Amino acid sequence: MRGVTRPSAALHLALAAALAVAACSSKTSGLTREKLLPLLQKEADSLKADGEKVDPGLGVQSTWTVEGIDLKEQPGNESTPWVGVIRFKIVSRTKDFDGSTLNDESKKQFEYQWNTTLEKWVFQYKPPPKPAR
After folding, report:
1. Would residue 99 be called left, alpha or beta, if left means φ above 0 and alpha means ψ between -120 and 50 degrees?
2. Listed residue (44, 120, 122, 37) closest to 72, CA to CA
Protein backbone atom coordinates (compact mmCIF):
# COMPACT_ATOMS: atom_id res chain seq x y z
CA MET A 1 0.00 0.00 0.00
CA ARG A 2 1.57 3.19 -1.12
CA GLY A 3 0.89 6.46 0.64
CA VAL A 4 0.42 4.81 4.05
CA THR A 5 3.42 5.13 6.33
CA ARG A 6 4.17 2.99 9.34
CA PRO A 7 4.76 4.76 12.63
CA SER A 8 8.42 4.82 13.50
CA ALA A 9 9.90 3.19 16.58
CA ALA A 10 10.71 6.67 17.90
CA LEU A 11 7.03 7.61 17.75
CA HIS A 12 6.08 4.47 19.69
CA LEU A 13 8.75 5.19 22.27
CA ALA A 14 7.61 8.81 22.66
CA LEU A 15 4.00 7.68 23.07
CA ALA A 16 4.95 5.09 25.69
CA ALA A 17 6.99 7.68 27.61
CA ALA A 18 4.11 10.16 27.54
CA LEU A 19 1.70 7.53 28.87
CA ALA A 20 4.13 6.55 31.62
CA VAL A 21 4.56 10.16 32.72
CA ALA A 22 0.81 10.69 32.70
CA ALA A 23 0.25 7.56 34.79
CA CYS A 24 2.88 8.57 37.35
CA SER A 25 1.74 12.14 37.66
CA SER A 26 -1.89 11.13 38.07
CA LYS A 27 -0.94 8.91 41.01
CA THR A 28 0.81 11.70 42.90
CA SER A 29 -1.09 14.77 41.73
CA GLY A 30 -4.25 13.81 43.65
CA LEU A 31 -2.36 13.27 46.90
CA THR A 32 -3.09 16.01 49.38
CA ARG A 33 -2.55 16.49 53.08
CA GLU A 34 -6.34 16.31 53.53
CA LYS A 35 -6.47 12.87 51.89
CA LEU A 36 -3.38 11.39 53.52
CA LEU A 37 -3.76 12.64 57.11
CA PRO A 38 -6.85 10.49 57.90
CA LEU A 39 -5.03 7.43 56.56
CA LEU A 40 -2.04 8.11 58.82
CA GLN A 41 -4.45 8.75 61.72
CA LYS A 42 -5.88 5.28 61.06
CA GLU A 43 -2.35 3.87 61.36
CA ALA A 44 -1.96 5.73 64.66
CA ASP A 45 -5.24 4.27 65.95
CA SER A 46 -4.04 0.78 65.02
CA LEU A 47 -0.69 1.28 66.78
CA LYS A 48 -2.49 2.59 69.88
CA ALA A 49 -4.86 -0.39 69.97
CA ASP A 50 -2.01 -2.88 69.59
CA GLY A 51 0.19 -1.07 72.12
CA GLU A 52 -2.52 -1.07 74.76
CA LYS A 53 -3.10 -4.83 74.43
CA VAL A 54 -1.12 -6.17 77.34
CA ASP A 55 -1.37 -9.62 78.90
CA PRO A 56 -3.44 -9.11 82.10
CA GLY A 57 -1.26 -11.71 83.83
CA LEU A 58 1.65 -9.29 83.66
CA GLY A 59 -0.19 -6.73 85.78
CA VAL A 60 0.67 -3.84 83.47
CA GLN A 61 -1.73 -1.22 82.14
CA SER A 62 -0.51 0.84 79.25
CA THR A 63 -2.02 4.04 77.82
CA TRP A 64 -0.83 5.33 74.46
CA THR A 65 -1.66 8.96 73.72
CA VAL A 66 -1.04 10.44 70.29
CA GLU A 67 1.03 13.59 70.82
CA GLY A 68 1.19 14.49 67.16
CA ILE A 69 1.07 13.41 63.56
CA ASP A 70 3.38 15.22 61.17
CA LEU A 71 3.23 15.08 57.38
CA LYS A 72 5.87 16.39 55.03
CA GLU A 73 5.66 16.57 51.26
CA GLN A 74 8.72 15.51 49.25
CA PRO A 75 8.48 17.31 45.91
CA GLY A 76 10.24 15.51 43.09
CA ASN A 77 10.13 12.13 44.82
CA GLU A 78 7.67 10.18 42.66
CA SER A 79 7.87 6.89 44.56
CA THR A 80 7.59 8.47 48.03
CA PRO A 81 5.93 11.87 47.67
CA TRP A 82 5.00 12.12 51.39
CA VAL A 83 6.54 11.05 54.70
CA GLY A 84 4.86 11.05 58.08
CA VAL A 85 5.71 10.66 61.74
CA ILE A 86 3.35 9.51 64.51
CA ARG A 87 4.46 10.56 68.01
CA PHE A 88 3.14 8.86 71.17
CA LYS A 89 3.41 9.41 74.91
CA ILE A 90 3.14 6.05 76.66
CA VAL A 91 2.24 5.69 80.33
CA SER A 92 2.64 2.24 81.86
CA ARG A 93 1.25 1.46 85.31
CA THR A 94 2.18 -1.51 87.46
CA LYS A 95 1.29 -2.50 91.00
CA ASP A 96 4.19 -2.71 93.42
CA PHE A 97 4.42 -5.35 96.16
CA ASP A 98 3.08 -2.91 98.76
CA GLY A 99 0.01 -2.17 96.62
CA SER A 100 1.17 1.22 95.37
CA THR A 101 1.12 2.04 91.67
CA LEU A 102 4.29 2.71 89.74
CA ASN A 103 4.03 4.94 86.66
CA ASP A 104 6.56 4.91 83.87
CA GLU A 105 6.41 7.44 81.02
CA SER A 106 8.12 7.10 77.68
CA LYS A 107 7.88 8.59 74.22
CA LYS A 108 7.93 6.71 70.97
CA GLN A 109 7.69 7.72 67.34
CA PHE A 110 6.96 5.78 64.18
CA GLU A 111 8.09 6.94 60.76
CA TYR A 112 6.09 6.19 57.61
CA GLN A 113 6.41 6.78 53.88
CA TRP A 114 3.53 6.98 51.41
CA ASN A 115 4.16 4.27 48.81
CA THR A 116 2.59 5.18 45.45
CA THR A 117 2.81 1.61 44.16
CA LEU A 118 0.94 0.13 47.12
CA GLU A 119 -1.09 3.32 47.65
CA LYS A 120 -0.71 3.13 51.42
CA TRP A 121 1.48 4.19 54.33
CA VAL A 122 4.48 1.91 54.86
CA PHE A 123 6.35 1.76 58.18
CA GLN A 124 10.03 2.65 57.98
CA TYR A 125 12.15 0.58 60.35
CA LYS A 126 15.14 2.42 61.74
CA PRO A 127 17.48 0.32 63.87
CA PRO A 128 18.48 1.83 67.21
CA PRO A 129 21.85 3.55 67.31
CA LYS A 130 24.79 1.40 68.27
CA PRO A 131 26.12 2.09 71.76
CA ALA A 132 29.43 3.95 71.96
CA ARG A 133 32.40 1.87 73.01
Report:
1. left
2. 37
**Number of structural domains the chain divides into:** 1
Domain span holding position 63: 32-123
43 occurs within a structural domain? yes
Whether residue 2 lies inside any domain: the answer is: no
Most confident range, picked from 13-22, 48-57, 76-85, 92-101: 76-85
Q: Is 5 inside any structural domain?
A: no
CB 133, CB 102: distance < 8 Å: no
- Mean of all residue pLDDT scores within the chain: 83
First and final CA of the chain: distance in angstroms? Answer: 80
Q: Which long-range contacts (CB under 8 A, 24 or more apart) does 35-38 make?
A: 36/71, 36/82, 36/84, 36/114, 36/121, 37/69, 37/71
pTM: 0.72
pLDDT score at 34 = 96
DSSP 3-state percent helix, strand, coil across the chain (nearest 5): 30, 35, 30
